[in-house]
Amino acid sequence: MSGIDLDAFIHTHGQLLAEVRDLSEERAKWKPAPQIWSVQEVVSHLVDHSFVISFRIRDILAGTAARLPAFDQDAWVSGQRSNEGRLSDILDAFQAILEYNSLLIGRLSEEELEKSGINFKGEPVSVKAIVQGFIRHVHGHLGQIERIKQASALALGNA
């Protein structure tokens, strides 16, 4: 299975755990501004993104001709009131979806990884590109989490 680092995909959960380790509930839910996500909302967004890529991958493998769906990430996060839940539950959901998707991805042949669909922008995208993009997406949000943590430490002290 060349081209996909399944370990990097699975390791995104451990990276998230390391980033939020020892974060108090107050700091996990702290928002620098009403329209800016908290750490907990960022993690919730990653679960949402996991759902979306799960659907996209399965739709491609099924040979569906429909465009792959987009989603309004801000509306999803606010609509589900992500900051009212528990970070541990959100992390558990992320891990469960990640592990389930990794089982599927691990079974795919190189030919299946190269199968593609049309994204919401009208561009072809392969299963492989979706998985690689997800890993990059998580890494980008790890940086965002770090920035929010630093800002919350200044605003709240070491709460």
TrEMBL record:
Pfam families: DinB_2. Gene3D superfamilies: dinb family like domain. Residues 11-145 form the DinB-like domain. This is DinB-like domain-containing protein. It comes from Paenibacillus albilobatus.
